[in-house]
Amino acid sequence: MTRGVGLGPVSSTSSRSRETGPRAMYSATASSAGRSAPSSSCPTWTWNPECAHRVDVIDAAGQSAEIVGPDGTRRTLRYDRLVLAAGSQGFKPDNIPGLARYAFAVDQLEDAIHLDRHLSSLAKRPPSAARDKAVVAGGGFTAIEVATELPSRLRAVLGPEANVRVFIVERNDAIAPAMSPNPRPLIDQALREEGVEARLGVGVASLSESGVTLSDGQSIESLTVVWAVGMRASPLTAQVPAERDRTGRLVVDPNLRVAAVPTIFAAGDTALAATDDLGHKALMSCQHANRLGAAAGFNAAADLLGVPLEPYRQKNYVTCLDLGPSHAVFTRGWDSQVELSGEKAKARKKEINTQWIYPPKANRADAFKAAEWARLVDY
Questions:
Q1: Which domain CATH number covers 52?
Q2: What is the pLDDT of residues 257-272, one digit of tens each?
Q3: Those residues with Cβ within 8 angstroms of residue 41's Cβ, 6 or more apart along the chain or in another chain
């Protein structure tokens, strides 16, 4: 009997996790093969965080994965095909003093909860410049969305009398350097209206308990420094003996198979995949992850069944950037042509977050419907 297992948010056979990171849920085929099936209190299909298993080791040569259960028990699950969809995590270089100790992040749920609790705790502190200021390091999508939300959030916590100031620090000479210039006037306008001050052409040199020092020698007093500079693929990709890019993503063929290890398919933030024949690559984004996961799962199953595989293609590319409580911008194409802005873009953003990329209900019919939609429908 063939065995298939998916590691991470998207399983190759039967489950789609609601949690990011290197998690694994046993697939139906793996359980029916009698390989370390979960207990009856943790049914295969329903998602229960207490039943989540962490993948520690991938043995590509032996076609097995070592899995740690919620009680610490280690098990080995063998597979015939594996889909690696373990996501990514924020990158914090180790050469910036104080970064690991003093910076907040938002790339994982526990990080966001930690930041939320910190912001709420500021109300208990006496007024000071450090309390009332926040610094966001980075000028990409995550940094922009965090920076434009922080002013209103801090005022809600500290009260209208607080002298709230938010800074966004970007080494490049423009915010949103990965985008074309087309939407930048709208982004710059939103930053100004929300009161976010941009420091361009500089980076964070060091952090301390009282704030940050920038690469030009200037200092900003702040108890709240959010690091949003770059992502890295799950460390599990390093256990696959195959080519990776500088972010750790595995190089895959058009069918999302890892060429050097044909029993492994990669998807989402663990895969470096071509979206078309023009040289564009999938980004670490939800729109690409959805289709990559559906395509990799389809192809892993097709490979086991001996039926034709379907090459991954995703020619359309859109972005929808949140710009604070009342602004957003929706662009289409790799040249970032603005299609919607203001209230209409804000409504589209809400639709994306609550419908387009929201996980399906934990039943087979809804999951298969969502996977088919993700595999076939272009934005």
A1: 3.50.50.60
A2: 999 999 999 999 999 9
A3: 51
